[in-house]
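[job 4471] stage=fold_predict status=RUNNING
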Amino acid sequence: MKSYIIPTLLIILMSCTISLSQTKNPTTTKKPETSVKSTAPKTTTNTTTKKPSIPVVKPPLVERETTTTTTTTTLPSTSTSSTTTIQSSGPSKGAKVKDEKVNENDVEVVKEPNSNSGGVRFGIRAEVSQFVSFKIGADVSFSPGFNAGLIVNIPLSETFAIQPEVLYAMNVQQSNEIAGTFERLTTGSILTPVTLNINLGKSSTKFMVNIGGYANYYLNSTVEKTFLKVKVLISNDLTGTDRFSYGSVLGLGVKLNKSILIEARSFYDLKYSNNKAMVTTLGVGYLF
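[job 4471] inference complete, writing structure tokens
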């Protein structure tokens, strides 16, 4: 009997171990199935894969308006939903974009400054003078004088201006009577021509015409006579109306760069010349 007990116990132990191994194998195979089922929804509910599908539009910055757009995306694999808020600085849907058009009436036209379209201009003038006689048989030699003074240019339009002047004038009249004998008359005066200044041309260089009259106030008058190398100086007595004279003036010239004046003029005395003499000048001036 004792010899059968030990084999019987061994058989029982082996059968128990076999039954235990059969019961453990089903549990170990079921655990991976449950873990797969639990992880599968997690991989499908990844919201980051859906975000690139949301278009982000950057409209042109035309008007400073801020709009807020709310988009709700529901994932079919799960019951959860994600909400994305996008802010853009562009105009909202349906907003009208301003089309700014330039009105011709609002455009300020800048014109090139014209020499006769601005305000009053002041200037200076200097010119050389020469006495010219129309008397038959008169032998007038070259005896230059000069004029110098101030100019005031008062514009009336782009073409016309009034131009008064105040000049100091020294005129010399020298005539030869007999060989070795001559007479020289020298006068100093305040010359005040007032002319209508006409500017012709569209560019910065203009052709000028000055037409007007003048008044002359004599300050002094001397006569120098020479006979056989003997000089005699005589001072004329100027009293009353002898100090005043008047006449007409005509000038032709050009204006360069709207400021530089080059002009030839003639002063015709209407009081003393008796249609027999005049004074011509050639000079330059500058308007500031």
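[job 4471] summary: The chain has a mean pLDDT of 75.
[job 4471] exit 0
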